Amino acid sequence: MKSAFSACGALLLIALPAGANAQTTVDSVIVTGRPDPEDPAIVAQARQRLSETPGGVSVVAAESYEDRFALALDDMLRDAPGVFAQKKWGGDIRLSIRGSGLGNANHNRGLLLAQDGLPLNEADGYGDSQIADPLITRFVEVYRGGNALRFGGASLGGAINLVTPTGETAPYDLRLRLDGGDFALLRQHLALAGRQGDWDGFVAVTNQTGQGPRPQSQQNIQFASLNVGRRLGDTAQVRFILNGAQIKQEIPGALTRAQFDADPHQAAAGNIANDYARDVTGVRSALTLNWDIADHLALSGGVYGVWKDLEHPIFQVIAQESRNYGLFAKLDWDGEVAGLRADAYAGIWGRQGDLDSHFYLNRAGSRGALRSVSYQNARALDVFGEGRLFVSDQLAVIAGATYGRAERDYDSRAVPGVATTFNLQASRTFDWIAPRLGLLWEAPDGAQLFANVTRSVEPPNFGALSPTGTGFAPVEAQEAVTFEAGARGRRGAFTWDVTLYHAELEKELLQFSVRPDRPATTFNADETYHRGLEAAVDWRFAPAWRLRQTYAWSDFAFRDDPQYGDNRLPVAPEHLYRAELRYDAPQGWFVAPSVEWTPRGAYVDFANTTRAPSYAVAHLNAGRTFRSGVSVFVDLRNVTDEAYVSNVQPVIAAGPATAAYWPGERRSVFAGLVLDF
Fold first, then answer.
1. Which of 134, 426, 135, 117 is nearest to 300 (CA)?
2. Tens-digit pLDDT profile for residues 70-119
3. How far is CA 660 from CA 108, 181, 225, 364, 612, in A?
4. CB neighbours (10 Å) of residue 272?
5. Which terminus in the chain has less CB density within 10 A, N or C?
6. pLDDT (tens digit, 9 = 90+) per residue, 569-600?
7. How many domains are there within the chain?
8. How far is CA 49 from CA 29, 172, 518, 536, 618, in A?
9. Do the beta carbons of residue 398 and residue 362 sit within 8 Å?
10. Among residues 524, 417, 536, which one has the least CA distance to residue 480?
């Protein structure tokens, strides 16, 4: 890893194309059309930056969800096209883009989840979405698929980056927020932002408690954030970021179909008896630098460190402590090549993670006898770059690539008296090159057409490698080639973002639950494909009315598999439609009914014998903003109290005893009060 870190310095000396230092006036690059009038300048700038990508990207402003009771990523990303974010329990969200990590039994795999550009994932790629606070997020950047190259990754899903406020970008100096409602849910939030000379600062805390909508779903959560920046003249800025979280959540568990039909609000009996829970404490810190080296050359980079402690009573009590740290650097350049307008970026991201893991017998939620001890070490390096050459005023040709390397070291120790434990040292190394080509064309009115082809590679994490007494399981890296084409823009009352994609996968990492008390097993499929449509259409058909719609068609399947034939992959429904009709009155109040509809439920199993039921769920949101900086809202969820399955666990073949169904939200009412000064 030392060589990986030292390569950072060499990267900064990479020769740039001719014209890098030329004092040439360059016209504005291809950008999306007119900015959304509802978005503040900082969000409009993010949209402009992302629109330089020849593929599916989007920005979700905090203004789009802060007048609702948004508790986790599923609430934040509800209107982001192509993002499958469905709650299982508490803050555990099944998060997927283009079918990434869908076979995973828990948490996130196959896409990078980041905060302020710094990974929330572990160094081996394992992700945890529960440590993201919607109230300490200014906006969210969504990079679907290979469009996340600027983060250095080459995964099928892409990246989701949560950007926290600073003293310069927060739309208030002081914010007090109180919201809560059914199931004793209560949340308090305090945030301060300010600027003084060359300094700016932001600090915020959130406290959240509740009993939950099902037995065994109590929660007690705290978030904190500190973001301090200082300008160094007119060309540079340094920033220190510190985020902390303490999350204590009980786990109600998945149900069998008979249990769900009888009472979808019950908890699994084993979860109650063994007090299933997930308690996490974590601290993340980073020191970053942004420096305009010259008129056409900028450097961004920094170092970061993450500490996390996990206490997780499930089939056993999992006790883990992890430390992740790394460095990153990226150069951005714009100028000319052979008299043609051009821009490019190149970067490096090196990281290392160490995890100490101890498993104990679960004695009603407490630690019993020690059952296993292991030490996991992951190292990873990504070197990446992409350039755009404008062959005409409206057309840019894009080429890029990433080189990746991932190392896995595992060391387990035999526990006296436990026959299933063993002394083992195992290592695996994966490396790859993932190229990318694309086109981006913009009409005079700002509408864009784009297309790209991207290779992606995903090495298995420690959970997928499943070490045994003979070493790692024979699991290989997942590979894919994704073809993508789409259009976005605004014309009159309509704003649209539509993308078609088709990915050919080899050795897809899929996972199924063996039984509720045993960890899931990962295998490589032979050949699979993921294809679909990601669409978002806004229609402002009157000054005060807006119809917002998103639709995802997801066709994920095996291709001539020896065991599963051409069966569809489980978990993701083929069709998912969401719509919100909003009326904003001149007096400052609004009302917004919405619906989520899955006309045909997702398969539960790889054998395609069982589907989850289809559903349609309606919600109602209303509120008012006063000139004094006071706003109030009411959020009514699941108006008709529909019993529906929001998520399923993948299994080989579902039967009557298969506990694979996660119930969706019950009918509930929440309200909020926000004071801005």
1. 117
2. 999 999 999 999 999 999 888 888 999 999 988 676 778 888 888 888 88
3. 18, 29, 36, 23, 9
4. 17
5. C
6. 999 999 999 999 999 999 999 999 999 999 99
7. 1
8. 9, 24, 45, 19, 35
9. no
10. 524
Tell me the CATH number at 578: 2.40.170.20
Nearest to 550 by CA among 32, 64, 51: 64
Rounded distance between C-alpha atoms, residue 9 and residue 329, angstroms = 9
Task: Write out the two tokens for 30.
Answer: 């291809």
The SS3 call for residue 46 is helix
> What are the tokens at 231?
């300008």
Q: What is the DSSP string of 207-269?
A: EEEE--SSSS--EEEEEEEEEEEEEETTTEEEEEEEEEEEEEEE----B-HHHHHH-TT---H
Residue 558 and residue 566 in contact, taking contact as beta carbons nearer than 8 Å: yes
Q: Which two tokens stand for residue 294?
A: 């010259």
With the C-alpha atoms ordered 353, 461, 122, 307, is the resulting torsion angle positive or negative? negative
Q: Is residue 408 within 8 Å of residue 447, measured between CB atoms?
A: no
Gyration radius (Cα) of the chain, Å: 24
Whole-angstrom Cα distance, residue 330 to residue 136?
A: 25
Say if residue 3 is exposed, middle or buried (CB neighbours under 10 Å; 0-12, 13-18, 19+).
Answer: exposed
Contact 247, 221 (CB under 8 A): yes
Domain limits at 199?
Answer: 2-164+173-676
Residues 443, 445, 447, 453: is their CA dihedral positive or negative?
positive
